[in-house]
Amino acid sequence: MRIALWCVCLCSSLGGCSLWLPSPHPDRAWIDLQTQANNRLLAVEVDGEQLRDRRYFQIEPGAHELAVRYHFEVKPTNIGAVEQPHRRDCRLTLAYNDFAPGQRYRLQAGKHGFRPWIRLYDPYDQLLARGLERGCLSI
């Protein structure tokens, strides 16, 4: 009985750890990912190099190109005479030349029908850059 209780406690504590984000490093720029409900935005690459943690970007100051995957649903009303929503998986990139150390940014993704968009904002909600769609798949 004790072993079973210990296993339940261990598993529940390990699952909760994966939800916590690390503390931002003061010498790096931190980029939060934000999207609309029922959609998913994942950090994929910085300057062509794969990331391990896909929940955020934490990068050196300066110029960088960020790549993300955006999973979203297109409602049947945007498609035509279908009953089921259509799922899309899109790759988007965004380049910005002036990431500052200790600064926190917000990368926001959304969609217009079948077309995804991505934008970078500073902590004061000033638009800094717009990204580009690099290809989408139906899933």
UniProtKB/TrEMBL annotation:
<protein>
    <recommendedName>
        <fullName>Lipoprotein</fullName>
    </recommendedName>
</protein>
